[in-house]
Amino acid sequence: MPPRPFDEMTNPDGGIRSPYGLYSDWVNQTPLDVLRQKHAQADVLFRRIGITFAVYGDNQGGERLIPFDVVPRIISKKEWDILSRGVCQRVDALNRFIYDVYHDQEILKAGKVPKGLVRNNGQFRKEMVGFTPPRNLYVQIAGIDIVRTAENEFHVLEDNLRTPSGVSYMLENRDVMTRLFPELFNRHPVAPVNHYAQELLKTLQYSAPDHADNPTVVVLTPGQYNSAYFEHAFLADEMGIELVQGQDLFVEGGHVYMRTIAGPQRVDVIYRRIDDDFLDPLAFRKDSMLGVPGLFEAYRSGAVTLANAIGTGIADDKAIYDFVPGMIEFYLGEKPILRNVPTYHLDDDDDRAYVLEHLAELVVKEVHGSGGYGMLVGPRASRQQISDYRDRILADPANFIAQPTLALSTCPTFVDQGLAPRHVDLRPFVLAGKTTQVVPGGLTRVALEKDSLVVNSSQGGGTKDTWVLER
């Protein structure tokens, strides 16, 4: 019998958890038709704003709205204190780890991380060996995926360090909620999140090369057909900086310039939303039409900062994830505040034997996968799907890790029949600059189908506003 999921709103005895006390009173006095009307208004607002995303490989084509739920996820001040300290601690250690693996590799010499997991990893960029970015910062922006288990414990599920997405939905969710339910914000001491863009800009400016007294920062996007293009444009607008594509930039005399109607303007920091391979056709994929020829050499010379740094993928690889608690102790001399989910490495003979025997009970993921693609959720899979996945594992065991099927916490969610529990996770967004900080909130993703554990928007999940109470 699987454990009963932790209910974010209701105690096992039926009482209401304190963070939801005022909200429960309100929702019990509010007719369902009002919530249904607000839900429809939210859809209209999101369409008007243009908050859409594309799904690669979607036969229907076009763009979709991410479904938005009008019932907030509410986190107490005490809970948030644990979460915020835990994710910041984790990002500090991951920055130290990335510096180490591209320099002295002390953690490998100490045997705390297997050498082969780093040196033979496709995300390890030999071109970055010996290079140090300004302020030793490789990861300025991180999204750390958090789940709450049946035991009411927060665990880290994944680290997203390359080009983490979703913060625009966090901000727009809050904007829509304040328009739809202003009376709720009068009742609840909800911490603000609308200062995120200003903090992001300060973080990017802090990471500029030393020669840049008044750094010019840009957002580099692959273009309007990218699934997260709305977010790229949104963040550039919120920060008051230019959104550029590869053809808008060029390298001359070792420096990066942006084409403008007033002539070339030197660029000091690039918040890039393009994967490593496509950044520079002279250094990486020669067929890339998205990048800037000569950009990597300008980066290596210290003329420009890339955020996040090239090569950060080595630290959010799912095979590396299991070793992050050890990194925290190794680099920071501290005990991890947040625990990992137990993880099996399928290149290990004993782990692989156990996983193959228990595929119907586990979640199996590709080590480089994201967005819920390439994943097996054993309890929800058919016999044929499990058999096919077994063949994939046997063909390349090192490409997979496995984890227990967690009883993710549930949050009341508005569905056709009214309010019903649905599984959720949380992605707080961490900024590492002069200090490491996280805005009080994050992107709560919700699995809208009953009993589903897949919260990814690309797999049919939705989002909620996340309220962190200030008292």
Automatic annotation (TrEMBL):
Database matches in InterPro entries: ATP-dep_Glu-Cys_Ligase-2 (IPR051680), CP_ATPgrasp_2 (IPR025841), UCP005522 (IPR016450)
Domain spans labelled Circularly permuted ATP-grasp type: 72-447
One Pfam family per UniProt: CP_ATPgrasp_2
Domain of life: Bacteria
Protein's name in the database: Circularly permuted ATP-grasp type 2 domain-containing protein
Phylogenetic classification of the source organism: Bacteria, Pseudomonadati, Pseudomonadota, Alphaproteobacteria, Rhodospirillales
